[in-house]
């Protein structure tokens, strides 16, 4: 099968999370970036399926130059080539604008399946994959915890997560966009050989015009949402904070749980 | 101009999803802030109005019915709602931010050309403009966003943002919407339990919730010791399960179990909304986290700030003392 996997590079906010001076987004200086969590699972799903069916995986990512690292990593894991939507015009897009660019890049080729993550860990729209499907005129399924290709590639049996520990089962026709939820497989690690090979694998960098789009269709200009500012969530309606020496803090906490909250 | 607000309710076999009522509250508040009317929309096979929807203060209850809507499918739902939105041009259409809505609402936005605000937690109205707040970075920050361009705006309303009991009661009438030919794009095969539910955390008195901050399966020892000393059960956030550090039946949150112990110790858990919905009913939440800005502190009664690898062993020592 010919499989496209959309991966987004997102900031790793574990060590450092600071808001930029203009207040509109993170201060990305000195920030580490990683492949979005659910996209790592989407990629693994695609690689395993391509191996099984003797096909190939093409990875696509929209974002600035730094995104090359994420694409190289995917190539090292086994993708055969990459499409990097790196033009400045693609920058700052919401789900609509990003989906338009991805759908146009996907539409230039013939794919049997498109895989995306369910949700990005930064913007968190949970929408891009479904919108890509709409633009391609394909069925989609969001929050997929498993799927099996059936019928010689004509359809897939999909397991989709519902709330409270239930799953929903259904069949969709292929080609489709499958938006996978984290946890459905065990992503592989890159081998040294894979890393060496990745250096020679091609990364195509089309501009909007190469996709039949203009700068007005994509990026901030093509978006319906504009972020005015970001802020830390309003802090606790009265969490009592205990700081300082761990031994003292531990004693204070247990004392409070016993005598104040009376839960121990 | 009076604004027209629709609230698309989620129901299954005549029972409203609990978040549907929260969406009604949000829609009523938006209507009163903007000056306009709020109407509910229900999709079903037979046009029956689920639950007590007619007993809310709503302009109308709009029903879209068709045999193809018996089971939820994105094709059916987008096919029923898209033309109705086109014909009646509501200014805002709100949905509960459920796993079902997120499956089809982006597609509805794309196909109707409407703007989409996913996962709204609040709004402010200035003049005619609505500024929405929504979580980003899995809730570690909140963004204020505005919509550019005209036309219908769709928004999904996150759980807990608008309390269901703030929805105003009243009485209203049903009207049916015209539904055209629907194309069902999924062959429904059924539902199943996600995993064998061996551990029931719903009755636990004390739960120690393990988060990604614990750092790896080899570092679980002190947390498990804490659970033992305090007489509690171990629960976990999703990444802990996804990474295979603990089995899936320990997961707490929107995809896992909903718990309400008298004491919940969140250890290395940031407190994303999907986790919070599963544990915010706990009587007393304690958060142990090195990041003072983590959203878990918004629902915690006590917070210990610092490295859990130092704090948890220190707590264990205090607990062990009183056991001797
Ligand atoms: C559709 C959907 C469904 C989901 N369902 C669920 C669900 O059911 N349950 C669920 O939990 N999540 C769910 N999630 C995921 C959720 O959005 C969050 O990503 C997740 O809850 C984060 O888990 P965490 O808090 O353990 O990890 P993180 O957000 O990575 O937080 C780790 C925390 O540990 C702290 N920390 C790190 N090191 C230390 C240290 N040494 N000492 C002290 N503190 C430390 C950090 O400051 C941070 O606050 C779902 C997501 C989606 C999109
Ligand atoms: N800039 C991007 N480049 C590649 N894929 C993306 C991009 N943005 C979103 N996606 C894909 O769409 C999914 C959902 O993202 P979102 O709609 O932002 O929550 C992600 O998990 C990715 O698979």
Question: How does this model look, in words?
Answer:
The complex is a heterodimer of chains A (264) and B (324). Chain A is of the alpha/beta class. Chain A has helices at 37-53, 67-77, 95-107, 128-136, 192-198, 246-259, and strands at residues 2-6, 9-12, 32-35, 56-62, 81-85, 113-117, 140-150, 155-161, 166-173, 177-180, 203-204, 225-231, 240-242. In chain A, strands 9-8-7-10-6-1-4-5-11 form a nine-stranded mixed beta sheet, with helices on both faces. A two-stranded antiparallel ribbon of chain A has the order 2-3. In chain A, helix 2 (67-77) crosses helix 5 (192-198) and helix 3 (95-107) crosses helix 4. Chain A is globular, with a radius of gyration of 21 Å. In chain A, 50% of the residues are buried. The mean pLDDT of chain A is 96. Chain B is built from seven helices and 18 strands. Chain B has two domains: 4-177, HUPs (Rossmann fold, 3-Layer(aba) Sandwich), CATH 3.40.50; 201-323, 3-Layer(aba) Sandwich (Rossmann fold). In chain B, strands 7-11-6-1-4-5-12 form a seven-stranded parallel beta sheet, with helices on both faces. Chain B has a five-stranded parallel beta sheet with strand order 15-14-16-17-18. Chain B has a three-stranded antiparallel beta sheet with strand order 8-9-10. Chain B is α/β, with parallel strands linked by helices and 324 residues long. The interface between A and B is large, with 81 and 91 residues. Strand 13 of chain A pairs parallel with strand 18 of chain B, so a sheet runs across the interface. Bound molecules: flavin-adenine dinucleotide and adenosine monophosphate (AMP). Flavin-adenine dinucleotide sits between chains B (138, 211-213, 237-239, 251-256, 268-270, 272, 274-275, 278, 289-291, 294, 307-309) and A (118-119, 143). Adenosine monophosphate binds at residues 6-8, 36, 38-39, 60-63, 95, 98, 116-117, 119-120, 123-129 of chain A.
